Amino acid sequence: MNSVRRRLLQALALLPIAASTQAAPVRKRLPVLFLGHGTPMTALANNDYTKMLMGLGMRIPKPRAVLAVSALWQTDWVTGVQAGERPETLHDFVGYPSELDRLDYPAPGAPDIAEQAASLIGDPARLFRNQGFDSGVWSVLRHLYPNANIPVFQVSVDMMQPGAMHWSIGRSLAPLREEGVLIVCTGNIVHNLQMTDDVPDSPNATRVWAQSFDMQVARLLGQRRDDRLALVSNLPYARDAAPTVEHYWPLLYALGASCNEGAPKTLYSGFQNGTISMRSLLFGTLT
């Protein structure tokens, strides 16, 4: 049995356990965040969402490093682990104001911890020395840690793997939380760029399917039904709410990394452009 198949079977066996295990008291363990990153314009925004991020950054004990899982770094048949000393700021978008192209997030990398993360993931993890920070990461981190003084490294999303495998990789990274690493997963629970609306940010979606899917996921999160959440295509409205799954997968890394800690706290809920859920979650505690 190859290692990928073995990990998948192990993940499938663990998912129901994660859904039923009660939270255990923990100390000195950093939380896990799932943050809706929205469009690149989040980087320039000054609104309730970005104010939440700024306040959150001041409340979380200062991490040794940030491990980021972003929807925008996608790989095939390998899990990439960013291991450069000084990753560049990627401007991986078109059609936005030139002001965005001038933004820089000069946080240092964390190659030593990245190597440790790759070892925890095991096969098929691979170190990437020249990978930069994608906008799904720096657009939120510039509000969470505006001084860019916390080392950051990313873990990619392997698009060839099913939900259970993403959950399993998140689970394998959980020990880093005990060593001062903050796990930040960024994506969007509802993400359909083909059906957005030109509306201001709002607590509610402009489409019934977007609102319904977001609330459905919120209910399953409250129940910690990790097993159902991993099978996203089986959920009602998934065809419209998550037509491509890359923005949903980071949620599963957060679930895996926090599998014994009960329901998350909602930090923010609302929609960007009518069909992009900005729901953001805290798993664990701040102290």
Task: Describe the strand arrangement of the main beta sheet, using strand numbers.
Answer: 5-2-6-1-10-7
- CATH fold-level topology: Protocatechuate 4,5-dioxygenase, Chain B
State the order of secondary-structure elements, H for helix, E for strand: HEHEEHHEHEHEHHHHEEEE
Helix content: 25-40%
Number of strands: 10
The overall pLDDT, averaged over residues, is 93
* Overall form: globular
**Overall SS class:** alpha/beta
Radius of gyration over alpha carbons?
17 Å
Main sheet properties: 6 strands, mixed
- What would you say the CATH architecture is? 3-Layer(aba) Sandwich
Residue stretches low in confidence (pLDDT < 50, at least 5 long) are 17-27
CATH superfamily: LigB-like
What's the structural domain tally?
1
Number of helices: 10
- State the CATH class: Alpha Beta
Indicate the topology.
Layout: H1 3-20, E1 32-36, H2 48-59, E2 65-75, E3 79-82, H3 98-101, H4 111-121, E4 125-128, H5 135-144, E5 152-158, H6 163-173, E6 181-187, H7 208-223, H8 226-230, H9 238-241, H10 249-257, E7 265-268, E8 271-272, E9 276-277, E10 280-283
Parallel strand pairs: 1-6, 2-5, 2-6, 3-4
Antiparallel strand pairs: 1-10, 7-10, 8-9
